[in-house]
């Protein structure tokens, strides 16, 4: 039997235990949105902690978008409705940290967007389809003129797809990943030998996604998304990252 090796136990900071209990009460709806937490003094008594500890816990909860302080109010902070936008902000920050490689972001985007396109092909309504069509047509127009807002129109198209998927988690994660690699998109366009040609290539890839969604063909829409992302980003990846992309695009 091999010898087990353990690392030293690290005690949890007191304010983290306060955060955990209040967070659980909010998420379990023991405390409803619109209700107030007890005052700082009451929280100090209930948790048997100091005022700085309570204030640090409240600061963390506020940064998470779970509570909001009301200046001049004698009652405690008000509990806010839990929103997917809070998750989106947290994920966007995580997606931008240096430890996430371009390969990881691209591979994750393939997983997210192919799924979103499949759902959009089945779930979209006429308004969402119109938004996709408008974005693609703007891309086509701006590809002719070499407009600097081409990438913005491209992101608008994909945002419309995520909206049409009717899946909030796909939308917020997809937008966060796309925002994180926007600089790569801008750099790739600015260094292209023929910028207009590069734009037209991207338009053709997105047009294929749109056509499949409009035709309500989920498998074709998902495959078109995989092809589009792979074609656009694979040249920027190292060998290991490219192999990962290939495995997602064509697992045979």
Mean pLDDT: 84
Largest sheet, described in full? Answer: 2 strands, antiparallel
Total strand segments: 2
Rg measurement, Å: 23 Å
Structural class, from secondary structure content?
A: mainly alpha
* Range of strand content: under 5%
Shape: elongated
Which percent range fits the helix content? 55-70%
SSE topology string? HHHEEHHHHHHHHH
Biggest sheet: strand arrangement: 1-2
- Stretches where pLDDT is under 50 for at least 5 consecutive residues are none
The span between the termini is: 40 Å
* Count of helix runs: 12
Molecular structure report:
By secondary structure, the protein is mainly α. Helices cover 69% and strands 2% of the residues. It has 12 helices and 2 strands. The protein has helices at residues 14-27, 40-47, 51-63, 84-95, 102-123, 126-145, 150-164, 168-180, 182-190, 195-214, 218-233, 239-249, and strands spanning 67-68, 78-79. Helix 5 runs antiparallel to helix 8 and helix 7 packs antiparallel against helix 8 (168-180). The model has no long low-confidence stretch (mean pLDDT 84).
